[in-house]
Write a structure and sequence with these properties.
The structure is a single chain. The protein is of the alpha+beta class. The chain folds into 2 domains: 12-120 and 269-273, no CATH class; 126-240, 3-Layer(aba) Sandwich (Aminopeptidase), CATH 3.40.630.30. It has 8 helices and 11 strands. It has helices spanning 12-34, 77-86, 102-110, 135-139, 148-161, 167-173, 223-237, 252-259, and strands spanning 43-49, 52-57, 65-67, 92-95, 113-124, 142-144, 183-190, 193-203, 206-214, 242-247, 263-273. Strand 3 (65-67), helix 2 (77-86) and strand 4 form a beta-alpha-beta unit. It is globular, with a radius of gyration of 19 Å. The N and C termini lie far apart (42 Å).
């Protein structure tokens, strides 16, 4: 799989593992919301084929996506599109280089979908803290969240960073995050104030750096870089084979990931409905 420390050679297996850990994390989030009394978010999901998952949340559009589609599975596109249409929901099909072929694109186009955007996957081998220069000082501001008090501060930074309007309701809905198997939560403080948050999801020997956010009042201080370095180190301690994450291409998050040694693995195409 590798060619020397810190170098991962591209492969279909790495792509498959990356999509699997991303999907497992999203499903974990959806299942928490699904368990709310009456399922008010409108969560649903389908396992259609080996590795193909369609996810739905009627009141949180960012969850509506189909992952894992690959060549030879274009027969699933129309039934899945109909499933979302029947629910009155717009979705996106996420297609990845190496698993895509023209038949998938042709079927999506026939049904009124177009390539509307891109999202970058980045990857690296894990290293202990101090494995790259500047790491130790930067990571000193980051703490692992293990107590209810820390968790409340974590959610303060998280909701501020993602600019979530109804913070009290969100905090109530995500209480199971603390202590969830495979989840490790991290908080960065500035002068004792909650400033940035990030999640490390451990699944099948892979570490996924998910959902990092910084309070706008504390941006441009290197906090996301510090969070990435700490999560990479803890993933290394957990014995993962590699660490991955995702970001919009050339975004601040993308640049922070490159800064800690992560490199582009692939850029997925996001297909959405016209109009």
């Amino acid at each position: 799989m590798t060619a020397g420390r810190g170098v991962l050679l591209p492969s279909l297996d790495l792509i498959r593992q990356t999509i699997a850990v991303e999907t497992a994390y999203t499903l974990a989030r959806l299942r928490i919301l699904e368990r709310l009394p009456g399922n008010p978010i409108g969560v649903a999901y389908r396992h259609v084929d080996d590795g193909v998952v369609a996810m739905m949340a009627r009141h949180i559009p960012g969850f509506n996506a189909v992952t894992g589609l690959r060549s030879g599975l274009e027969r699933h596109v129309a039934p899945l599109a109909e499933w979302y249409l029947a629910a009155g929901i717009q979705t996106q099909f996420e297609l990845v280089p190496g698993t895509y072929d023209k038949e998938l694109g042709r079927e999506l186009s026939r049904l009124g979908y177009f390539q509307a955007g891109f999202h970058t996957s980045l990857i690296r081998e894990p290293e202990p803290l101090g494995g790259d220069t500047e790491a130790t000082g930067a990571a000193a501001a980051v703490e692992r969240v293990t107590t209810a008090e820390q968790f409340d501060a974590f959610l303060d930074a998280y909701t501020a960073g993602w600019q979530i309007p109804e913070r009290a309701g969100f905090k109530a809905n995500v209480q199971p995050w603390l202590g969830l198997p495979g989840w490790q939560l991290y908080l960065a403080r500035v002068d004792g104030r909650p400033a940035a948050a990030g999640i490390l999801f451990l699944h099948d020997k892979v570490g996924y750096c998910a959902d990092a956010a910084t309070d706008p009042a504390f941006r441009r201080r290197g906090l996301q870089t510090a969070l990435l370095r700490r999560r990479n180190a803890d993933a290394n301690a957990a014995g993962v084979e590699f660490v991955c994450s995702g970001a919009d291409y050339l975004s601040t998050s993308h640049r922070a990931m490159e800064r800690v040694g992560m490199r582009v693995q692939f850029v997925r195409a996001l297909w959405r409905e016209l109009g």
